[in-house]
Amino acid sequence: MFSEEDERWMHTAIEAATERGRDPSLSPIGAVIVLKGRAIAVERNRTEELCDATAHAEMMAFRKAGVAVGDMELRNAVLYSTLQPCGMCTMASIWSKVGRIVYGAGRDDVHQMYFEDRNFDTMNFVADAYRDDLVLEGGCLRKECAALYYGPDDDVPKEEQGNI
Ligand SMILES: [Zn+2]
């Protein structure tokens, strides 16, 4: 399902995610947007340093990629993310017109602190979108990506849980 090229870009996303270390409490999430075989944006989660709840890795990457191509629409581009995109980033993926979303760890691979909702899988936004040309594939380098985050059963102190 995943090509060597996919894995190579996911490695790039992991590198971006861990630019400031591998502390799982800092939500080290990386995202890469690739168009015509070239990375047009490589970003990481920057919510803490920018004091901006929307500064998720994917959002940062959409902003940079749009400027790079001079267009808000990123048709035929591929978004790589080390973690399943949240609802905001999934919606932004739909609006940005990327052609494919590839993520590493899924919500069942990590602690619930990385997601905003209890039960609803926001990936369903993709299934319900008007667009029929958006491909979604999870589990690329799943183990390596999941290792960046607290596991589902880890006992995470409440003050470190960003979603509550
Ligand atoms: Zn997000």
UniProtKB/TrEMBL annotation:
Protein name: Nucleoside deaminase
Biological classification of the source: Bacteria, Pseudomonadati, Pseudomonadota, Alphaproteobacteria, Sphingomonadales
Occurrences of domain CMP/dCMP-type deaminase (ranges): 4-128
Entry superkingdom: Bacteria
SUPFAM superfamilies per UniProt: Cytidine deaminase-like
An MF annotation (GO) of this entry: catalytic activity
Species whose genome carries this gene: Sphingomonas chungangi
